[in-house]
Amino acid sequence: SVAHSARAGAGWSTLLLLIGNGGAMAVLSVASLAVIDVLPFYFDYRGVWDSLVGYEGSYDTPVGLTAGILGVVVLLVALAGGRAQGYALRPCSLLLRPDLFVHSANIMLLAGVIPWWACQSHADATDLVDGWGYISGKACKWMMGMCLLPIARQSLWLNAAAAGFPEGVAFHRVTGWWCVAQVVIHSLCYTVTPALDAASDYEDWKHHLAHGNHTRGPECPGEFDGTQLHAVLAALRVYFWPWATRLSVETGEPEPNTLGVFILVGLIGTLAAISLSAFSLPRLRRARYDLFYVVHVPAAAFFIVLGAVHEFQMMVFVVPGVFAYFLDRTDFLNRTATSRFHHVTARVRLMTADWVRVDVAGPSLRSEAAYGTQFLYLRVPALGGESHAFSLAARCPSIVIKANGDWTRRLHELAQKQAAAALGIE
Q1: CA 135 to chain centre
Q2: DSSP collapsed to 3 states, 272-332
Q3: What is the full DSSP assignment across 207-246?
Q4: HSE of 139 in the Cβ direction (CA atoms, 13 Å)?
Q5: With b meaning 16 or more CB within 10 Å and e meaning fewer, what string describes 108-142?
Q6: CB of 154 within 8 A of CB of 165?
């Protein structure tokens, strides 16, 4: 029995060790997925990848493999995040200082296209632009998946990283900006690429027609009947507009313009991302947070949905972050929704000309977390439906607010008016 207990204890120790290393294993799994998803573009070992994972000549990672690896990552994060709640762990340095890593990764992906292009035989400018378009789409997919991971106010992702929501916001911000930048690069490159192809095909058509033969037919009626500019505009029209008549380049017969559907959806998604980023500019966000929030959430949802329609793999990458957000905002699985607001009474004290203190009536918090690491969302009905997060200054709970923005200034003015009315001052 002693030997049995010893073996059982060793088994539990091994299990706890694996759980404790869940965060590191999750990072290793993500790194493995990055290698499988990105490196085949840069290095010519297609035969190896085709035999291992069945790429079938495509640079796209099989969806089943991607979903399987991400599923393993989610499981490991759940184990690591659940265990991290009971331990005082050091926060993940990547969340505390994400800028250098995220900037470097995106710049290296784009810069790596140049040596790849230089190593290609008979490559021209079209191939370089096409390579940038392809790799920027890959980077956009990764940035979108990463920027959605910390959007939940409380989640196992943040617990596994031993970080709070404020650290997650910094990571969300830098990855989100790069997501928008990459999708804009992707759209521009895949606008230039078909234009360059159409210009080249027009020259080939005229050359071969003069010699009594040709390599391929037009993609739309009348594409090669005018000037080279006319050919480019005609090709772009059938490329972006699904209702334009597309011709088979082999037979010349009309065929469904399914490519135009996916291209138009992607273009609309890019416009949604641009509008989202415009309202996320720091000056506008601080001055009109209410307008920022009203635009940010619907535009982000629109961008995600259209991006998933344009490229199905993007749907697989956004599921972990969206699901964590869903759990955080609902009572699913008997969790308490952190988005639920409770009507409480609060006492507001004017501290200085710029500072107010809000003491919320209710039981004190039992958590022993350090001051400033916990926060609450405050909504004042007299100021509208807008809500803002503030770090706790005491476990009463109590918060201290500076009149620094539009909403906080209106809160300060409301407190002054009510104080003056209570004292009978006109």
Answers
A1: 16
A2: HHHHHHHCCCHHHHHHCHHHHHHHHHHHHHHHHHHHHHHCHHHHHHHHHHHHHHHHHHCCH
A3: HHHHTT--S---SSTTTTSS-HHHHHHHHHHHHH-TTS-E
A4: 31
A5: ebbebbeebbeeeeeeeebbbbbbbbbbbbbbbbb
A6: yes
- Number of neighbouring beta carbons within 10 Å of residue 236: 15
Place of tokens 């988005």: 339
Banded model confidence at residue 185, pLDDT cuts 50, 70, 90: very high
Extract the tokens encoding 280: 């996320």
Residues 6+ apart with CB under 8 A from 374: 164, 365, 367, 391, 392
DSSP state letter for 56 = T
Q: What one-character DSSP code corresponds to residue 254?
A: E
State the greatest distance between any 2 C-alpha atoms of the chain, in Å, as a whole number.
98
Nearest to 53 by CA among 42, 39, 64, 44: 64
State how far the Cα of 291 lies from the Cα of 274, in Å rounded to an integer: 16
DSSP string, 119-162: TSTT--HHHHHHHHHHHHHHHHHHHHHHHHTT-SSS-HHHHHTT
- Give 222-253 pLDDT, tens digit per residue: 878 888 888 889 888 988 988 888 888 777 78
First-to-last C-alpha distance (Å) of the chain: 84
Give the span between the Cα atoms of 105 and 107, in whole angstroms: 6
**379 three-class SS:** strand
Mean pLDDT across 318-336: 71
pLDDT, average across residues 55-66: 60
Instruction: Give me the DSSP letters along 150-211.
Output: T-SSS-HHHHHTT--HHHHHHHHHHHHHHHHHHHHHHHHHHHHHHHHHHHHHHHHHHHHHHT
Cβ(365)–Cβ(399) below 8 Å: no
* Other CB atoms within 10 Å distance of the CB of residue 89: 17
